[in-house]
Design a protein that fits this description.
single chain; mainly alpha; 2 strands; 3% strand; globular
């Protein structure tokens, strides 16, 4: 069980095993739109609030994705919240020499101006 009684499922672990290497390869997971991620996080946050359950981390993640949505628009990229954090910090989490991968095609591409 995770912190706060939340269960960590095998799906969560599988997601992390997929998402982290993708992120480190420069892939922001462009097969799903940032606007949809934000909508889902907003719904989860609203439900948690209605049920009076703790949701401060979810609220923070939702707010970050809302800021990324305002910055990048409804672009494809599940991990554009991370791109916003990278931009603000002035660093990239991927290896600087690594080409940016496109999760929808698997092809390498150049970064799209999400960073300084």
């Amino acid at each position: 069980m995770g912190r706060g009684g939340a269960r960590i499922s095998s799906t969560d672990v599988d997601d992390l095993r997929h998402d982290l290497p993708a992120l480190l390869a420069g892939d922001y997971l462009t097969d799903f739109g940032l606007d949809h991620i934000h909508d889902q996080l907003t719904a989860v946050t609203a439900l948690a609030e209605r049920l009076d359950t703790p949701h401060s981390i979810t609220d923070t993640v939702c707010r970050l994705h809302g800021e990324a949505l305002a910055r990048y628009g409804p672009a494809d990229g599940e991990l554009l919240g991370v791109a916003l954090l990278e931009e603000r910090a002035g660093i990239l989490l991927r290896h600087p020499a690594a080409p940016v991968a496109d999760s929808s095609t698997g092809a390498a591409e150049r970064p799209t101006g999400h960073h300084p």
